[in-house]
From TrEMBL, chains A, B:
It holds the Pfam family Epimerase. This is UDP-glucose 4-epimerase. Residues 2-233 form the NAD-dependent epimerase/dehydratase domain. PANTHER family: UDP-ARABINOSE 4-EPIMERASE 1, UDP-GLUCOSE 4-EPIMERASE. It comes from the Bacteria. Pathway: Carbohydrate metabolism; galactose metabolism. It comes from Nitrosospira multiformis (strain ATCC 25196 / NCIMB 11849 / C 71). SUPFAM superfamilies: NAD(P)-binding Rossmann-fold domains. Belongs to the NAD(P)-dependent epimerase/dehydratase family.
Length: 307, 307
């Protein structure tokens, strides 16, 4: 059962779990177009409903074994505009889901958290899972509160919980308006001849992780039964925005115009996450180098342009 | 401006701040009886209203300089029964208050957090402010989320924030049904000849801090302008329930019957908080020893019995 299984990350996880032979149900909002046709031979059920409706959620998860929760109603960059909406839709919404899961005796829940926002300003690098959590945006505060409630419900009700704090994912199907999506946003502009807009001086450094590696982490989490609950999912390496632009220029074979805008106060300067724990516990490792991942996105963008 | 200024902790803070010469407004729910008569010469205004009403809160804080936020709608021990109510009334309620404070240009906010529940199981003792936060109860999760939002609003809107993570406060006027109130609950039973009920084997250890020392910490926080935002307010010493009973027996001069009940899973075995940061930054120190504090409560209970 995958809540949010039709999005950028969800669809990659679905495709990967189908390869692994799992039977899946996808829950999405009404009017979200399935990202591809599923064959009659593929064990996928596509349900639509309102996540804030305990009725819709209850019907959907009846008889399910594992729930993957990927839904967020807000984006990091805009969540500060209305923290109450963020709390109501994401935190209270997740608590409602959790209450239904207790009633329906779900065995396990896997939750996507935000490696980029829950830690805040790094006190050391790379940031491991024991680093203090001091989110600079509402998005990170609600993700963190949901994490704490998941662990509380695990203790109270025995629902096994795994939390993946995913760094900056990129890849095909990423929407260009998400805050983490520098790769997609930059590529989109570069391919359509527009200048790239960079907040700050371009030294802001992020940890970009390719989508198939993220999907691989979720696939391993499904079968992971070890004692750990919280994992960073990251490349373990930092890339500055300026380095990213240089790499894009290399791949595209032409220069890209950059416009530098004044920095945003809530942006963390450097975010690089250690993935050692996921390597040790789940045998997971990122496999797709940044350059190769970007080349894949370029091909996909060119192929789907104008569609 | 003191939200919750009529309660056990609030009333002690009010009395202390009046001694320091501050002008105060107390905001309480309707039908909360003032804990004492205020003289015409005392600069205290007693307002009533609904904290979830932005209208009531807005009217109340208009023109105020500093807000002290002491309100909680839930108790640690019962908050897990309905986490959604906990989030709605405490977290969303506090966010609504914060939005009003931004609009009304409040300079500073002081918030009471929970030294007993935000940390969870101790990884080392005494627990300092940098200890990981892994609350075992909803009460602690919402307190922690409010803390994070206060710090976010400080950064976004410049409202200076101080958070006091108070250990296990005790003293006159404490309600006997609160989870932290072992001293009051035990004394109430011992004085009325009832046996004491102890969850677990009585080795559970807490950090009891006398109410006048808590009030002193808030008084210092009002004038504190240093860089730190989060302080433990604690005695720094641990007392087990069995030690507490022995001390009560000494003070009362007779034995007390104890009934041991099976332990609650969410109870942390040991909670002792370091108060070094508050000492260094605010020159605050606990002054009233546990024995002297308990003697004060005994006197007060005997004086007010049957009233």
């Amino acid at each position: 059962m995958i809540f949010g299984g039709g999005g950028f990350i969800g669809s990659a996880i679905v495709d990967r779990l189908l390869l692994d032979g799992h039977e899946l149900t996808i829950f999405e909002r009404p009017r979200v177009e399935p990202y591809r046709k599923f064959l009659d031979t593929e064990p996928v059920k596509w349900l639509t409903g309102d996540l804030l409706s305990t009725h819709d959620v209850g019907d959907a998860i009846d008889g399910m074994d594992i729930v993957i929760h990927l839904v967020s109603s807000t984006l990091p960059k805009s969540s500060n505009d209305d923290p109450i909406y963020d709390v109501q839709s994401n935190l209270v919404g997740s608590l409602q889901m959790l209450n239904v899961m207790v009633a329906k005796k779900i065995r396990k829940i896997i939750f996507i958290s935000s490696g980029g926002t829950v830690y805040g300003r790094p006190e050391y690098l790379p940031i491991d899972e024991r680093h203090p959590t001091a989110p600079q945006v509402s998005y990170g505060i609600t993700k963190l509160a949901i994490e704490k409630y998941l662990l509380l419900f695990e203790q109270m009700h025995g629902i096994k919980t795994t939390i993946l704090r995913v760094a900056n994912p990129f890849g095909e199907r990423q929407r260009i308006e998400t805050a983490q999506g520098a790769v997609s946003a930059f590529l989109h502009r570069a391919l359509s001849g527009q200048p790239i807009e960079i907040w700050g001086d371009g030294t802001a450094t992020r940890d970009y992780i390719y989508i198939s590696d993220v999907a691989d982490a979720f696939a391993r989490t499904v079968t992971y039964e070890g004692p750990q609950s919280v994992f960073n999912i990251s490349s373990g390496a930092g890339t500055s925005l300026n380095e990213l632009v240089s790499l894009l220029e290399e791949i595209l074979g032409h220069t890209i115009e950059c416009r530098y805008l004044s920095g945003r106060s809530f942006d963390v300067q450097v975010s690089i996450l250690s993935n050692t724990l996921a390597q040790q516990e789940m045998g997971w490792m990122p496999k797709v180098p940044l350059r190769e991942g970007i080349e894949n996105v370029v091909k996909w963008m060119i192929k789907t342009r104008g569609k």
